[in-house]
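ok here's Sodium-coupled monocarboxylate transporter 1, seq below lol
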Amino acid sequence: GRMGRFTVWDYVVFAAMLLISAVIGVYYAFRGGAQKSSKDFLMAGRSMSALPVALSLTASFMSAVTVLGTPAEIYRYGAVFCIFAITYGLVVLCSAEIFLPVFYKLGITSTYEYLELRFNKYLRLCGTVLFIIQTASKPQSCSTLYTGIVIYAPALALNQVTGFDLWGAVVATGVVCTFYCTLGGLKAVVWTDVFQVGIMVAGFSSVIIRAVVVQGGIERIVNDSYHGGRLNFWDFNPNPLQRHTFWTIIIGGTFTWTGIYGVNQSQVQRYIACKNRFHAKLSLYINLVGLWAILACATLCGLALYSIYKDCDPWMAKQVSALDQLMPYLVLDILKDFPGVPGLFVASAYSGTLSTVSSSINALAAVTVEDLIKPYFRSLSEKKLSWISMGMSLFYGGVCIAMAAVASLLGALLQAALSIFGMVGGPLLGLFALGILCPFANGIGAFVGLISGFVISLWVGIGSQIYPPLPERTKPLYLSTAGCNISSGNLTSTAIPLTTVFSPPTAERPALADNWYSLSYLYFSTLGTLITVAVGIIISLLTGTSHRAVTECVLDLFQTKMTRELSLPRGVLVTLCKVEVLNQNPFTMPSEGTDNPAFSHIEMDVASDKDKVNGLHI
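and the structure came out like this:
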């Protein structure tokens, strides 16, 4: 049958989504006397409650990559991807019980401030710089590079199928996003995310409901999927080289995602903005339900895709040029008689983009202001800082749109660079884990650990780009074009087109390529984390932990400062400590060490005082 194209109504629906997002930004910019301080702008004045934050975390997790990519992933490789449901549970547990208490208690704006408190300012700088470049191959990390692809890729996929104007969409989303981030700060980001989650669920639901109607019931979809081998949940192959098995997803997935949820600025910044620690934890647990719902929607869409196209795969029949385009193709195919509904789907894909990009812009602004501007320009007033934060939002918004243009020119190259940079997440997670879980780790150990984790991750990452894993490692499932009534000859190849920039002839694959470089992409982070922690521990023990007493004392004073509000600058604290350590009998260690901010014996819950954060006048 004829494929639908976009109608006026679809454009109207899409424009309405952008407009409402912009209006939310304006509302928060002028409500409650605008943004008085950078704290208000970047941290929403630490007054958010759990539900909006939870929905916001869910939204930025779901970029357009989730809306377009996950259903295609399930269509191609089967529903083993669902095992991520267990992974998400583990990730949220780790984040809420290990990382959240530390960050919340210290009342910091940038997660990298922790690195300075725990180790030294050089490690903080390392963390910050890595983060700004870090363009984890996961859409959740914020980064200037990645955001370009996040804006451009969905625009391209939708453009090729629906004829939706490419640059119009890119510029419109970029501008609207920058607009509400700059005006409304974190509050606007969170509330637009809440609205966008609604749109995404609506888009998914419309596709699922219509597909079930077309196929005459959900039984038929499940049945087709079963016979097509798509319900491959329980693959217990322990081989770390297989792309997705039960173990790679549980173990590798947990490390990869904890790097995003536990220590990534864009996520942490939001749950730290909650009004108290209970709300912060609650937001993570509610967000877990959101993640499960989204995963269920995406899975159903993927199985519906298979059920509808099991006899005629549009990708092999050359109807679409990439797997990302399957969802838009399906939407135009089954919803063409419903004016405005394809527009709703496109709006839901772009909602994914908007929410990811807005959290990126806000987090990048926060990190820049807190880690690169505040420490070096001490005299700036709060008012000035809030203006600078706005300026940074505007700047990063511009950079993101520019990056989308770069992505259009250097697509494949950028993709390769991203997958390589994605490895950064592992070592960074290792660095935080070292600081929080190993009281005896010191700055030298942490630094050497970070570097070695980084080098090994890069080695595997670059290797896997040069020698992509073989199809028997990724296990694509069978697709058929038997039922297609299209007369075109060359439909015999079932090989996956490799999107890598440089793939040498397959004959000369070194032994390393099939054993080391074919590691499942989910294990890259795991490797980086484990190596960072292991090396960090060994080096710390070798270089001695003589600074322990100093650290301990700094933190003790820091805590008294928090509770009794001693107003001393941090430098004085350290000197006081050194003096105190000299006067101390070196062998009397306090019964419980507090060189670790996570497990200190003073619980701080003074966040109820609105004007001060945890009793600390900031």
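fwiw Residues 135-142, 487-505, 564-615 have pLDDT under 50 and may be disordered. kinda neat tbh
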